[in-house]
Structures are given as C-alpha cells and as structure tokens.
Design a protein that fits this description.
Layout lengths: L15 E5 L2 E4 L4 E4 L2 H4 L8 H11 L12 H13 L4 E5 L2 H18 L7 E5 L8 H7 L2 H4 L9 E4 L4 H7 L4 E6 L2 E2 L5 E2 L2 H14 L2 E5 L23 E4 L10 E5 L1 H4 L15 H14 L2 H24 L4 E7 L2 E6 L3 H10 L2 E2 L1 E3 L3 E4 L7 H20 L1
The structure holds pyridoxal-5'-phosphate (PLP).
C-alpha cells in the first residue's frame, strides 16, 4: 500500500523536534550537529532569536494580504537587495523552482518585446539543478529527473560543464540566455572558476544574450560574499535566489537589471504567496545579518578553517575520502565509498551531511557555526570515517 506521504524521498530514520543554532535535537534528547542546514536553507542556524522575533512579531500582526496590496516588508527587502547587488528590481517567490520559472519567462519576454521573438532558447549545463517543475527539469536535462515526465518545456539545450567549444557551438540566433550555477550544488559542489564566469559574461555581451545565474544554493553569503558571482567581478542580467534568503521560511526571489526586466509589466507574472508579509519579515532579518561585511568576512575565515581541517580528514582516511572541493561554506568531500554510506555513518556519529551527485558528501553548515562546533564536527566526521574503515 502506498504510504500516506507520497514516497518520493528515501528518508533517514531520524526525527527532530527542536533546533538550536547548529544543533538538531531528537525527542529523546540526542543532539546532532547539523552540517546540512536543511540543504543550505538555515543560513543562520535553527531558532535564531532575531528570526524568531521577526516571524512571531509579524505573525501577531498580519499574515497575508496578497500582492494586490503594498507589503512594507517586501518593499524593504527589495530595497535592501537592490542596494546590495547588481539588481534594479526584485520579484519574490516561494522557492527556487518558482524563481527558475520566472527567470526563463523574463528572458523570453525580454527578447519578444525587443523584436527578436525567435530568441527563446536557454543553454544550460550537464549536472545542473534548477528545481522540479517541468521547465526546471528540462533546464537541468538530467535523464533521472526527466524520465517519464514528458513532454517537457522545449527550448533547452545542454552542454558539458567546462566545455568551451560545446558552449560556443550551442549558441545560435534562437538563443536567449545562458543559465548556470556559479557553484553547482546537487551536481556535486563544482565551483565555476572566476575566469569562466568572466568569459561567460563576455560571451553573452558579444552575442547579445542574457546571463542567468542560479544562486539558489550558493548565494546569500554561502561562499563568503553575499552572492557567489561577486568573486568573479562580473554581474548577471537575471539571478535566481531562494534557500538561505528565508533562513528556513519558504522564500525565493528573482533579481534582475532594468533592461532585462523591463518587459515584465503589470499582469505578466504573479504569485499568491510570493513576498508575503511573514516571509519578507524573516527575509529582512536574514539580510540584516548576512549582508554585513563583518559577517561575510567571518564566513570566509571559518571556510578556510573547515577546508584545512577537511584536508586533514582526507589525509587521515584515504580509503574513505579522496579530496575536498567547493567554495566558502559550500564544501564537498569526495568519497571513495558510497557517499550515502558516509552520510549514514555520520548519523550514527550524530552529525548531519547531505549527499550530492558525483559521490560527493556536501557540508553546508549554518553560516554562523562556531569554531568550537567546527572542531566538534571534524571529530564526528572522523568517527564516522573510522567506523567505515572497520566495517
Ligand atoms: C534547491 C535548488 C533549486 C530549487 O529550489 P526549490 O526551493 O527546491 O524549488 C534550484 N536551483 C538550485 C541551484 C538549488 O540548489
């Protein structure tokens, strides 16, 4: 008999009833160090007092009005994001998938209104992940995600990650945009070298097409900059955001330049919940922390510490791990044994990690994890690896 919850997940047999900073706690009091952060969502850890205050204060006042009316916290959050980034304008969504939908619509509409309606094609990359809608799975092009769900939205082509010639060959008169994650998340924590992102920007300018960045996982401070593309010193035309921006409240956004977004006039897009008062109250509180230069500098400092400790872990357990990859606090341990086995051994050692493709184990801790917690995490990862060596 089918379970009462549609069984699309292989869930771990763990059930948490409480969160405190970098810790998740089971009903029996067992404490797990959380290096998954709800898949890079709980950027400020669990139950951060400022986020709890922002949410509960708003909850006591007003939950929802729809976008038929002005929403002060939505305006504040949009203004903050515009001030802190390349963007001129923001649309709020509830998830990364919805941000993907709008990014694609915006790119197509842009060229339609620009008198080039034939430009509808989006070029994406092997190993990408952009969400689970029929457009987002078509964008990612993974057989595993697409199988049986056709017909999918047409107009997406895929080129191998890092293949310059294939990318050039894929661009033609029907291309509207290039869509890429500055650091692939689900695909196995693969950072795009700064030089490549610069090259993509130049290529888009040369061809007159748009650059769409998916910063759903790598954005919001994860790499030590507010957004990962800032390291390369170039900016996109359109950017998808979600995950960390709500700190655990479902919130996403599409940020865009005025030229890219101009065609999105009244009635062309909408969302019942997107940018709702609860989400934006929390989003403002998240931004107040993460956009602070001192906070981002701490992310970079701690990232170097974690990375150094992970290199040591790899050296100590060469039969379990083969290397470390990633950027900032978006790190991947390359595994020699199935990454799911390592994740399970981690559960026994009371530490949470997240498997990704390419047999990589993702470490996506809360960005405000402490040095002591980092040290504890390394001890627990060491215990987990040692348990697999004995087995
Ligand atoms: C998680 C993710 C998405 C999809 O976000 P949802 O909120 O699950 O819809 C899209 N792109 C990237 C890079 C992601 O990591």
């Amino acid at each position: 008999m089918i379970p009462t919850i549609l069984p699309t997940y292989n869930r771990a047999p763990l059930s948490f009833v409480k969160g405190e900073g970098s810790w998740l706690i089971e009903a029996d009091g067992r404490r797990f160090l959380d290096l998954g952060a709800g898949i890079a969502v709980n950027a400020l850890g669990h139950a951060h007092p400022d986020l709890v205050a922002a949410l509960t204060e708003q909850a006591g006042r007003l939950w929802h009005t729809s976008n038929l009316f002005e929403i002060p916290h939505q305006q504040e959050l949009a203004d903050r994001l515009v001030e802190a980034t390349f963007a001129d304008t923001v649309f709020f969504t509830n998830s990364g998938t919805e941000s993907c939908e709008l990014a694609v619509k915006m790119a197509r509409k842009h060229f339609h209104e620009a008198g080039q309606p034939e430009r509808t094609g989006i070029i994406a990359f092997a190993g990408a992940f952009h969400g689970r809608s029929t457009a987002a799975i078509a964008a990612a092009g993974s057989e595993k995600m697409m199988h049986g769900f056709g017909p999918l939205m047409p107009g997406f082509t895929h080129v191998p990650w890092g293949n310059h010639d294939a990318l050039h060959a894929a661009i033609d008169d029907t291309t509207a945009a290039i869509l890429i994650e500055p650091v692939q998340g689900e695909g196995g924590i693969r950072p795009l070298p700064d030089q490549c992102l610069k090259g993509l920007r130049a290529l888009c300018d040369e061809k007159g097409i748009l650059l769409i960045l998916d910063e759903v996982q790598c954005g919001m401070g994860r790499t030590g900059r507010l957004f990962a593309h800032e390291w390369a010193g170039v900016t996109p035309d359109i950017m998808m955001v979600a995950k960390g921006i709500g700190g655990g409240f479902p919130l996403g956004a599409v940020l865009a330049t005025e030229p890219a977004a101009r065609s999105m006039t009244a009635g062309t897009h909408g969302s019942t919940y997107g940018g709702n008062p609860l989400g934006c109250a929390v989003g403002c509180a998240v931004m107040r922390h993460i956009a602070e230069p001192a906070f981002l500098a701490e992310v970079t400092r701690k990232a170097a510490l974690v990375r150094q400790r992970l290199e040591g872990l790899v050296a100590t357990h060469p039969d379990i791990f083969s290397g470390v990859r990633g950027a900032g606090l978006m790190l991947g341990l390359e595994c020699r044994v199935p990454n799911t086995d390592v994740a399970r051994a981690g559960h026994a050692a009371q530490i949470i990690t997240v498997p990704a493709s390419d047999n990589v184990l993702r470490l996506l801790p809360p960005l405000n994890i402490t040095d002591a917690e980092i040290a504890e995490a390394m001890t627990r990862l060491d215990t987990a690896a040692a348990s697999l060596e004995i087995a």
